[in-house]
Design a protein that fits this description.
Order of helices and strands: HEHEHEHEHEHEHHEHEHH
Radius of gyration: 16 Å
Shape: globular
Helix content: 40-55%
Subunit structure: Homotrimer.
Number of strands: 8
GO molecular function: 2-dehydro-3-deoxy-phosphogluconate aldolase activity
Distance between the termini: 33 Å
CATH superfamily: Aldolase class I
Bound molecules: 3-phosphoglyceric acid
Structural class: alpha/beta
Organism: Oricola thermophila
EC number: 4.1.2.14
Number of domains: 1
CATH architecture: Alpha-Beta Barrel
Family: Belongs to the KHG/KDPG aldolase family.
């Protein structure tokens, strides 16, 4: 079955930046999500890079209904299922494997998988995936590389992440094949650990106004 684009497209077009979140302590999840929502970024990606990730997703799903919580760094089918059980509304992966395609098959929770090379994009298209993450964006060749993919892959739309920040997000957002960007800059680690939610809301507000 093809990608659940009906569920994914509104998320990718609803805000210019999807915050990529790494949380070491689940107690920070709810105030962080509220700060991002207050700044105008309701869709947030909590990455499964820490032990606190699934509990953080669960808390945001339960306690911050105005947020749209997603799970990132999903590497296999088990993690896809765990994220959905925790309440993730969308799932992001740096790549795409047959196991992930199977896990996402028929799920109401859409999968945004990553692809960088032409062969990876063609394989994703064969699996019915045309909305893709482009990771790691800056390191893989940046906006110039991504722009050059728009001719052969006219129907593919990307969310570049990795090295994207307030300084270069507009270069990506100006591309015809980019719907949104992702990045961790809106939730800096020091602001999270010190509970500086006002600073995060302000950063989110700036990111939400990018065009
Ligand atoms: C991701 O998983 O999308 C990236 O790690 C985010 O990259 P950044 O920290 O450079 O924004």
């Amino acid at each position: 079955m093809p990608q659940n684009t009906d569920a994914l497209l509104p998320i990718m077009t609803g805000q210019p930046v999807i915050p990529v979140i790494v949380l070491d302590d689940a107690k920070d999840a709810v105030p962080l999500a509220k700060a991002l929502v207050a700044g105008g970024l309701p869709a947030i990606e909590i990455t499964l890079r820490t032990d606190a990730a699934l509990e953080s997703i669960r808390r945001v799903a339960d306690e911050v209904p105005e947020a749209l919580v997603g799970a990132g760094t999903i590497l296999n089918g088990t993690q896809f299922d765990q994220a959905v059980d925790a309440g993730a509304k969308f799932v992001v992966s740096p790549g795409l494997t047959p196991e992930l395609v199977d896990a996402a098959e028929g799920s109401p929770v859409p999968l945004l998988p990553g692809a960088v090379t032409s062969s990876e994009i063609m394989a994703a298209l064969e699996d019915g995936y045309s909305l893709l993450k482009f990771f790691p964006a800056e390191q893989a060749g940046g906006a110039a590389y991504l722009k050059s993919l728009s001719s052969p892959f006219g129907g593919v739309r990307f969310c570049p992440t990795g090295g994207v920040s307030a300084k270069n997000a507009d270069e990506y957002l100006a591309l015809p094949n980019v719907l949104c960007v992702g990045g961790s800059w809106v939730a800096p680690k020091d602001a999270v650990t010190s509970g500086d939610w006002d600073r995060i809301a302000a950063l989110a507000g700036e990111a939400a106004s990018l065009k």
